[in-house]
Design brief:
mainly alpha
Length: 132
């Protein structure tokens, strides 16, 4: 029971905090992301994929449907975000002593833990769900 409760806490923490970023992008738009993609020589339309990684995937993680696949989308989303936006911060320490990429690392590694652990019993897909 404790394992399943821990998985639920991981899922809810990751999804709730990441979903706020997705909602902010839904309100303000993906223009800055499109600009960064264009500068990197990538199609600017890829900016809309952020909604999959920061809105759809967190919703699936919260309800516990296709949880492992949704968490893998978050992992990929964070790798792309670090490579595209934060690569210059990889070895930086903030003025308060924290790693400049600690939030991105949190999202990446919690999502990776969910990929490995699955959704657990407290999910709509249940423990026997193929992608849970």
């Amino acid at each position: 029971m404790n394992d399943d409760l821990g998985k639920l806490i991981l899922r809810l923490t990751l999804a709730a905090t990441l979903l706020l970023h997705g909602v902010a992008k839904m309100i303000s738009g993906v223009g800055p992301i499109a600009g960064m993609l264009g500068t990197a020589g990538l199609p600017t339309q890829l900016a809309y994929a952020v909604f999959i990684g920061e809105v759809l995937a967190p919703i699936l993680i919260v309800i516990g449907v296709w949880t492992r696949m949704a968490a893998m989308v978050v992992v990929i989303n964070m790798i792309v975000a670090v490579a595209l936006v934060h690569s210059g911060d990889f070895l930086k320490i903030t003025s308060t002593g924290g790693w400049a990429l600690e939030l991105q690392a949190f999202y990446l590694f919690v999502a990776l833990a969910i990929v490995l652990l699955g959704a657990g019993r407290y999910s709509m897909g249940g423990t026997k769900g193929r992608w849970n």
